[in-house]
């Protein structure tokens, strides 16, 4: 089984066997194009034309959190919400959440296998990437399961991402754009933002989170070209913290709301983008009460998630804190570092980091954000990805950032060392650097997403 799919599951199941076969259908993991997935969807009877009202979400950072806020608020309004996200943390099934009364659920093994069997037969061995064929399977499930809304998160980029095959949407959301995946999307913000803006549609509201000026200019040019009306963060809507509250303001008025349950100041902006999207589509019927309830119930595993219980948490001294965050690029690092600094202001503790990263990511840029903040970094491997940097490579990047570093063979070894090195004040430990590592940590702790 491919390490990038397995994510420490205890044993293979039937869906894993399909995923293994799907990987072999194309020589590249990523090959941005719409032709292959469109051909397969045609053979399946065009399920992309029978979806519930769809909100599509693209961006570099904050996609998952914004999607989580949207789901929580919509479900608080009594809506059945389908959700498509990637990557998964522990099991592939996390990528496909099917809407149901009382809250959505991950697709079960039987339905997933049945759908995989159908798409495999329809594809008939034609070249197609893993993400493309599994996206087709997800769209088939969404089309066949009644729901009120579909939240469709882009996998990579937007313009040529396999999710960008739906003929219509009720809103398009673009979260902050920054440098990441330059090999596929372009070497600068203008090029990357152009690819993200490929999800914008004529006459469909485009909700744009606060952006770097270069990225925003690129998005605005594309919006003008296709005729998409924009609601831009910092211009047409504002989300800010005031006196321990979240204040949202747009042309329709002001909302005075509780702070979101998700930790970190960057979550104010993510919540704001979700609120702006829902207010751009009044027909969805999400009122202020549902927005407030959603802010308090939102859940997004692997993003500044505190592990208060479990096997890994139990390895640390009493009074310690164990956190997990899948941040992996420089902007993500700065957001996580800012959140750690906030926590330290409220309750000072020695900060220890357990870091694993992929060789496709800017390790130096990510780790520089923690200079002067973290007392020690333990470099660890990522067993679930063949593209992982070695612990020594992580340590070298950490040292270049001016951080004290040790090399460890596993998360468990790093936590054991952190426990032995702890002084009179118990540490605050953060496992970070990759969503793959976050998934491994959740699995090892016995607290997978649900």
TrEMBL record:
Which one of the record's GO molecular function terms can you name? ATP binding
Domain Mur ligase C-terminal per the UniProt entry, residue ranges: 318-434
Describe the task this protein carries out: Functions in two distinct reactions of the de novo folate biosynthetic pathway. Catalyzes the addition of a glutamate residue to dihydropteroate (7,8-dihydropteroate or H2Pte) to form dihydrofolate (7,8-dihydrofolate monoglutamate or H2Pte-Glu). Also catalyzes successive additions of L-glutamate to tetrahydrofolate or 10-formyltetrahydrofolate or 5,10-methylenetetrahydrofolate, leading to folylpolyglutamate derivatives.
Q: Which GO terms describe its cellular component?
A: cytoplasm
Q: Which NCBIfam families match?
A: folC
- Superkingdom as given in the UniProt entry: Bacteria
Give the signal peptide, or none.
Answer: none
Q: Keywords assigned by UniProt?
A: ATP-binding, Folate biosynthesis, Ligase, Magnesium, Metal-binding, Nucleotide-binding
Q: What Pfam families does the record tag this protein with?
A: Mur_ligase_C, Mur_ligase_M
User: What's a BP term from Gene Ontology annotated to this protein?
Assistant: folic acid biosynthetic process
Q: In which pathway does it act?
A: Cofactor biosynthesis; tetrahydrofolylpolyglutamate biosynthesis; Cofactor biosynthesis; tetrahydrofolate biosynthesis; 7,8-dihydrofolate from 2-amino-4-hydroxy-6-hydroxymethyl-7,8-dihydropteridine diphosphate and 4-aminobenzoate: step 2/2
Q: Which family does it belong to?
A: Belongs to the folylpolyglutamate synthase family.
Does Metal-binding show up as a keyword for this record?
Answer: yes
Catalytic activity from the UniProt record: (6R)-5,10-methylenetetrahydrofolyl-(gamma-L-Glu)(n) + L-glutamate + ATP = (6R)-5,10-methylenetetrahydrofolyl-(gamma-L-Glu)(n+1) + ADP + phosphate + H(+); 7,8-dihydropteroate + L-glutamate + ATP = 7,8-dihydrofolate + ADP + phosphate + H(+); 10-formyltetrahydrofolyl-(gamma-L-Glu)(n) + L-glutamate + ATP = 10-formyltetrahydrofolyl-(gamma-L-Glu)(n+1) + ADP + phosphate + H(+); (6S)-5,6,7,8-tetrahydrofolyl-(gamma-L-Glu)(n) + L-glutamate + ATP = (6S)-5,6,7,8-tetrahydrofolyl-(gamma-L-Glu)(n+1) + ADP + phosphate + H(+)
The EC number(s) this enzyme carries: 6.3.2.12, 6.3.2.17
**Which protein are we looking at?**
Dihydrofolate synthase/folylpolyglutamate synthase
Cofactors, names only: Mg(2+)
tRNA-binding among the record's keywords? no
Residues covered by the Mur ligase central domain: 57-277
